[in-house]
Specification:
By secondary structure, the chain is α/β, with parallel strands linked by helices. The chain is about 60% helix and about 10% strand. It has 9 helices and 7 strands. The longest helix has about 35 residues, at about 55-90.
């Protein structure tokens, strides 16, 4: 085990957070209004009594971006966690299906599936994770003859005060970051470097966001409005009619 130097984590975050922002902006620039409209529930927006093209476009764009950003940032935090585990415990990215990280600590071999937060999946997805753990353990015991293997579902934020799930342990927030770093304060310390140049990068994003809101609003009015009013029947047909 090697002592973790926080400046190393800071440097890693600052050197790599730009990729998250670049992907976020790229995904925004490649959006097409009609593709987003196809994925969203028009009945919901009608039930909310949305009356203007601008409001509807902003609602669907915000919902789409929120889901997308959660995925992108979850991938980035996974990279941070793997870097920390490599630095402290000589851990490495796993090649096993559904397993992100492997490390050895205090004589125990750990396989880790990393998720953003604690409420990441339904019962079928959790069952698949457990199946992946079982298969990974079998492979490791055959290949490396490892006796004690413990499975961890590591969540980068959140809480779960009952970590022992029987077949695996669920470590969330502080527990997870402390597990991979042996530093009980790391979960707090990493928040500051995540804001590295955030203002400049978000200004570029907000300019593009405003541009798309305006363009999409005009396109929506041309396609789905009559005399300035939303034609809900036409919108529903575009979204849901059989072809």
């Amino acid at each position: 085990m090697t002592s973790l130097i926080l400046n190393e984590v800071r440097q890693f975050v600052e050197e790599n957070i730009g990729e998250f922002h670049a992907k976020r902006l790229d995904r925004l620039q490649r959006l097409k209004l009609k593709k987003v409209l196809k994925r969203k529930n028009p009945y919901l927006f009608r039930a909310k009594n949305i009356l203007t093209a601008h409001e509807l476009v902003k609602n669907i764009l915000d919902a789409h971006l929120s889901s997308q950003e959660e995925t992108l940032f979850g991938q980035f935090l996974e990279e941070v966690a793997i870097f920390v585990a490599q630095r402290v415990h000589n851990g490495h990215k796993s090649t096993a299906e559904g397993v992100d990280l492997e490390l050895e600590k205090d004589g125990i071999y750990y396989i880790v599936s990393i998720k953003s937060g604690p409420n990441w999946g339904n019962s079928a997805q959790i069952q698949q994770m457990k199946t992946n753990f079982t298969q990974a353990k079998k492979r490791l015991r055959q290949g490396k003859r490892i006796r004690e293997i413990v499975a961890i579902n590591g969540c980068c934020y959140g809480q779960d005060n009952r970590p022992d799930k029987g077949e695996y342990f669920k470590l969330c927030g502080q527990r997870f970051w402390e597990f991979i770093s042996d530093d009980e304060r790391l979960y707090v310390e990493i928040i500051e470097p995540l804001g590295y140049k955030a203002k400049e990068r978000n200004e570029a994003f907000q300019r593009e966001y405003a541009r798309l809101i305006n363009l999409f609003s005009q396109e929506f009015m041309d396609e789905f409005c009559d005399e300035g009013l939303i034609n809900w029947e036409r919108l529903i047909e575009f979204n849901s009619a059989a072809k």
